[in-house]
Design brief:
Layout (H helix, E strand, L loop, with lengths): L21 H12 L1 H4 L3 H11 L3 H16 L16
């Protein structure tokens, strides 16, 4: 394990909530959203099974934390890909 995240303000041991590491709940949210694809692949199907073993309260908290984080991210304006930088 590296010390890459040592200076981060998020707590890697927390799985959900405002101080939890976003990688935790974003990962599990992704597994949940992609379950149809993942269940067809034996190598990653076990992750769907691991998610399914979580309590309904924990699943709801994962979904809510992910949604809150995603909605808080800034959005680019339409046409950004064709705009020219200003100096």
């Amino acid at each position: 394990m590296s010390n890459y995240c040592s200076g981060c303000s998020y707590n890697v041991k927390e799985k959900t909530g405002p101080t939890a590491c976003p990688f935790n709940y974003l990962y599990w949210n992704f597994v949940d959203q992609q379950r149809d694809t993942f269940t067809q692949n034996g190598r990653v199907n076990f992750m769907v099974n691991s998610f399914d073993k979580k309590s309904e309260d924990e699943k709801a908290a994962i979904r809510q934390s992910a949604q809150t984080f995603i909605e808080a991210q800034p959005r680019l304006e339409p046409g950004w890909e064709t705009s020219t930088p200003t100096s």
